[in-house]
Design a protein that fits this description.
By secondary structure, this protein is α/β, with parallel strands linked by helices. The chain has 2 domains: 239 residues, Type I PLP-dependent aspartate aminotransferase-like (Major domain) (Aspartate Aminotransferase, domain 2); 131 residues, Aspartate Aminotransferase, domain 1 (Alpha-Beta Complex). It is built from 14 helices and 15 strands. Helix 3 crosses helix 4. Belongs to the DegT/DnrJ/EryC1 family. This is dTDP-4-amino-4,6-dideoxygalactose transaminase.
Length: 383
Amino acid sequence: MLPYGRQSIVEEDIAAVAEVLRGDWLTTGPAVRRFEADLSALVGGVPTVSVTSGTAALHVAYAAAGIGQGDEVVCAPMTFVATAATAIQQGATVVFADVSPETGNLLPEAAAAAMTAKTRVVSSVDYAGHPVQVDELLKVAHDGGALLLEDAAHSIGGTWQRRPVGALADLTTFSFFPTKNLTTAEGGAVATPNPDLARRAAQFRNHGLVRDKARMRYPDEGGWHQEVHEFGLNYRLPDVLCALGSSQLRRLAWFKERRAEIHARYTAGLSDVDGVRTPVTLPGADPMWHLYPLRVLDGRRRDLFDHLRAGGIGVQVNYIPVYWHPVFADLGYQRGMCPNAERFYAEELSLPLFPDLSDDYVDRVIELVRKFFSPERSLRSEQ
């Protein structure tokens, strides 16, 4: 079965990990500092904090923003459950706002309509790797006294108006899961241009420990002394995985180029097929394509999914609207609240997309899609 996504690992990656294993540090050592510096350089010098997963990055970001009981977070529903769940785990109420029918990204006007006096964060998602309309969303968030969080699990290496993802929002979160645009096996990061948010993020990912004497309440206790002023968790990404991340970053430009080539090949092969809609790119966006979200019209998505799976093509659907999950239904969320997102979900089918995918396999996927929609097949189905 051809997967819809997979990691790209070369000998240089293996050597980088082996070098750490032969050294003195397995965690919280020089490879962590190097990886965070490499990430920072990629996102225009914005400080970054590495963590154990994309979910951890979201949790750390909400904690850094001070999210707690009584706060509200406006959230896009076309995302993995973690974007909303981590806000709820901090005690917030999540208010879902609808998405663009073109890109699946949070609509600025929908976010504005969802804002209240309790809104502390607006959480947008770079769906499929296409950056959000960050300037409009920043205005919406800041006008309401809130921060903008950009969930960039899909989009590291992309740009909006020639500015890198990671340097755009108040808080940006990344994921380095194996199917993402670069991997540390498991891992993630938070980027923020705000020094106080960066400090709070770094502190929360390390149990909330304070080691700066200038901030201690009892600074003269001794050289061993450290304090916890606010609770945190252990979300530290170890040196072994950071070494893999730094090695992967050296190939990120190629990953982006190859993903764009595959994306363009799909579009060229499918844009004339009746019954599907190919993805769009808004002016000013230079996406790092993580997914190829084909839209399958007329209620035929499930049939095409089964057809491709039967042909050995591991297509996927991204995502069930978050509030459809039973855990949200049990909290009182109801279907129908974001009609654009629900329509997008009903049509979306992610075709295989990863850097090592060959043109021959791309053409095989295109061939099977075209065969599904061919008049001859439709005629046989009717008989």
